[in-house]
Design brief:
The complex is a heterodimer. Chain A has no helices and 11 strands. Chain A is mostly beta strands. The chains are: A mainly beta, B mainly beta.
């Protein structure tokens, strides 16, 4: 069974630009969560989607947004990039219901903002 | 109320020794406590998890001890091996109203474990 796939693996952008990251969950998983990982702040929750609906949201500015498609694939978007947005962005999938508490993480997208 | 505090930040253990990592939480609504292992260049991988109705859970060389009254839980790695060298994160989450959503994890700051051969 294929794991969680995130694309691209690496991304370099400049301040002010916007970026879209993609996540394909494990087959059968309907929940996708996004996390930001930095050396200073650690792992921080961004948002969770289930059946195309945002179910939970973390404490990030509105520049961070996401969506989920009918096939459970998810994208997150960051607009007006700032230097502090440089981080590893991780996607995790789970069944999202009926005891689906186990999260399976992808390898992440490493975003560098110059 | 949402914090999870993890210690130590780094840990060096000899091969065959016991590695112990501790976490403390504040929010008593948390009802799921997983531990994740992360290798460089990879995402975190679930190691073992526990719910607050049990005081201990063991899977192979990995054991979680849970103290609900103290709001603390710990990971014990027995017979530590060089291959266990990684960053370990404790986490906590709370199910949604239906108890089915645990996608929002609150993580500890991580412990870098080094096991010397």
């Amino acid at each position: 069974k294929a794991g969680v796939t995130q694309t691209p693996r690496y991304l370099i952008k400049t301040r002010g630009q916007q970026v879209t990251l993609s996540c394909s969950p494990i087959s059968g998983h309907r929940s996708v969560s996004w996390y930001q990982q930095t050396p200073g702040q650690g792992l921080q929750f961004l948002f969770e989607y289930f059946s195309e609906t945002q179910r939970n949201k973390g404490n990030f500015p509105g520049r961070f947004s996401g969506r989920q498609f009918s096939n459970s694939r998810s994208e997150m978007n960051v607009s007006t990039l700032e230097l502090g947005d440089s981080a590893l962005y991780l996607c995790a999938s789970s069944f999202g219901q009926g005891g689906g508490e186990k999260l399976f993480f992808g390898s992440g997208t490493q975003l560098s903002v110059l | 109320q949402q914090q999870v505090k993890q210690s130590p930040q780094s840990l060096i253990v000899q091969k065959g020794g016991i590695s112990i990592i501790n976490c403390a939480y504040e929010n008593t609504a948390f009802d799921y406590f997983p531990w994740y292992q992360q290798f460089p260049g990879k995402g975190p991988a679930l190691l073992i998890a526990i719910r607050p109705d049990v005081s201990e859970k063991k899977e192979g060389r990995f054991t979680i001890s849970f103290n609900k009254s103290a709001k603390q839980f710990s990971l014990h790695i027995m017979d530590s091996q060089p291959g266990d060298s990684a960053t370990y994160f404790c986490a906590a989450s709370r199910g949604n109203a239906g108890g089915t959503s645990y996608g929002k994890l609150t993580f500890g700051q991580g412990t870098i474990l080094t096991v010397h051969p």
